[in-house]
DNA sequence: AACTCGGGGTA
DNA sequence: TACCCAGAGTT
């Protein structure tokens, strides 16, 4: 019986995925894809990736672009700190590494947004460096193959999985790209969360979960937790065919994106318009509530359409701007804001 | 160690 | 509905 790495790399070369758009000899594109794929499925990423590389074909172009334009291409993909870190990392590659991508996982990990797994993926794919990845696919494959019962999000279990992943690396650097891709491909195509296809799996001979018939129980589910509820009003301020958007602070939810002004109550919203924005407004319409679910809370949005009757001559603050509906939809805006602007 | 950070796919 | 997805950064 050949060992784990041999079986996996052989399987990947014969039956793995070879036509993904980021399977190219370009560390910039591999890096971009790995960041986009953090906590995001392949099918979701592909159209974003295509648009992104068309606009930003290399690290120098990305580094020179305004952050707003980068965020506009990321809007809808989620986890917007990834876009900010990507932009900052591109600038660091230009200024600190002379425009050349770092050639080791250790150096790659010094770039913002690149952690242990992403650095290993880029180094393994592009340079053949013998470093292990540990993403959702690998956690599932290894917890089943080794019969590890604990929840992979738990520190001790994760540490065990990292050690196991490192112990299974191929001896030869030339096998690293196929091995790394094989771990991902196996988890994505055969060793799926539900109804895994064990029959064609190259690891079925010594897979503990398969031998003990417990693939459905591994990996362990995330412990349940109640999801907090929050609510807010979003103000759709209309003035001469334009809508007022407000740039969110760089950190926190929807960081750096253009969004709608929010208030906790209708009265406070009207007062906010008067006192802070210098607008005299009239309530035109209350749109139906919109429920938006995040990973860690649920947000109920009550949208209010307000007509602007009068505007102060005062200079608008930097973080506010009037957008046509069309321009707003092309800017970096959160998904629920996009849905609202498409209604009005 | 626990929490923050999106949005969509899927059973 | 609830969990998961080519995780990283902060507290």
Automatic annotation (TrEMBL):
Organism annotation: Chitinimonas arctica
EC class of the enzyme, as a word: hydrolase
Co-factor remark: Binds 1 [4Fe-4S] cluster.
Give its E.C. classification number.
Answer: 3.2.2.31
User: Which cofactor(s) does the record list?
Assistant: [4Fe-4S] cluster
This one is known as Adenine DNA glycosylase
Record GO terms (molecular function) = 4 iron, 4 sulfur cluster binding; 8-oxo-7,8-dihydroguanine DNA N-glycosylase activity; adenine/guanine mispair binding; metal ion binding; oxidized purine DNA binding; purine-specific mismatch base pair DNA N-glycosylase activity
Q: Which PANTHER family match?
A: ADENINE DNA GLYCOSYLASE
Specify whether DNA repair is a keyword of the entry.
Answer: yes
InterPro entries found in the cross-reference section: A/G_AdeGlyc_MutY, DNA_glycosylase, HhH-GPD_domain, HhH_base_excis_C, MIG/MutY, MutY_C, NUDIX_hydrolase-like_dom_sf
Family per similarity comment: Belongs to the Nth/MutY family.
A GO BP entry is: mismatch repair
Q: Is Metal-binding one of the keywords UniProt gives this record?
A: yes
Q: What does this protein do?
A: Adenine glycosylase active on G-A mispairs. MutY also corrects error-prone DNA synthesis past GO lesions which are due to the oxidatively damaged form of guanine: 7,8-dihydro-8-oxoguanine (8-oxo-dGTP).
List the catalysed reactions.
Answer: Hydrolyzes free adenine bases from 7,8-dihydro-8-oxoguanine:adenine mismatched double-stranded DNA, leaving an apurinic site
UniProt keywords (A-Z) are:
4Fe-4S, DNA damage, DNA repair, Glycosidase, Hydrolase, Iron, Iron-sulfur, Metal-binding
Q: Which residues form the HhH-GPD domain?
A: 36-189
Specify the taxonomic lineage.
Bacteria, Pseudomonadati, Pseudomonadota, Betaproteobacteria, Neisseriales
